[in-house]
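From the shared-data thread, chain only:
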Amino acid sequence: MREKFTIRVDAKTLAAVRRLAKGERRQLQELVDEALTDLVEKRRLDGPRARAMDAYQRSHARYGELYKKLAQ
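Structure, as tokens:
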């Protein structure tokens, strides 16, 4: 299922994407779909990093003084 929506894009960026689409003989919509899919996937993969940072912060809260001593 496809849904129609309207957005505003920087003119230079849009022109560059149109050139890419033409050069690849693809529809502009295909490139936009690809870009949005890539963005969603990138953000999804950022999840574990957030969990790792949370674990680090908990560790630092618990062992911060020990870390300082070890650094000396």
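Residues 5 and 48 are 31 Å apart (CA to CA).
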